[in-house]
Design goal:
By secondary structure, this protein is α+β, with helices and mostly antiparallel strands. The protein contains 3 helices and 7 strands, in the order H-H-E-E-E-E-E-H-E-E. A 6-stranded mixed barrel has the order 1-5-2-4-3-6.
Length: about 160
């Protein structure tokens, strides 16, 4: 119980910091890595790929995500491996989306986890186009290895770059 209370307090502090930064005209970028790190759960490490259900030839997905939201290639969103659904507090139709901190190639971003999928072996997360472009601007790599994904506690995170 103490852990949940501490996590809720950390989440509230980070949410306040994000909204305060936005109010000062700094956008939704979180400037305090230390606060974000404090609010994170256990890290998962694996590979990340990208997906877009609207792209011709796509074998998976569809225009509606597991949370019931429409897929938006311009948002900061991702799909986690179906077997990891519970680690992220469950991603269920009609429920509030979950959030995660994704770290790779020296960059960090908060994403909304609003979808799940079978994913290819070794992959733990599928990033939408905007999020993948943050890590790989050319979109030529396709798969990024050694990606760290940490579930974030709380429901009111502002997705976007952390730096």
């Amino acid at each position: 119980m103490l852990f949940r209370a501490s996590a809720a307090i950390c989440g509230a502090v980070v949410t306040f910091a994000v909204f305060a930064a936005a109010a000062r005209g700094q956008g939704a970028t979180v400037h305090s890595n230390a606060v974000v790190d404090e609010a994170c759960g256990d890290a998962l490490v694996g590979a990340a790929s990208t997906y877009n259900p609207f792209q011709p030839g796509t074998r998976e997905g569809g225009p509606e995500t597991a949370s019931g939201e429409r897929y938006d290639p311009s948002a900061w969103t991702a799909a986690i491996k179906t077997s990891l659904r519970e680690k992220f507090g469950g991603v269920q139709f009609g429920e509030r989306p979950k959030y995660a901190l994704v770290e790779a190639v020296g960059k960090k971003v908060i994403v909304k986890i609003n979808d799940v999928g079978p994913l290819m072996p070794g992959r733990i997360i599928d990033l939408n186009a905007r999020t993948m472009r943050h890590f790989d601007p050319s979109m030529e790599i396709g798969v990024i290895h050694d990606v760290k994904v940490m579930p974030l506690l709380g429901d009111y995170w502002v997705p976007g770059p952390v730096g």
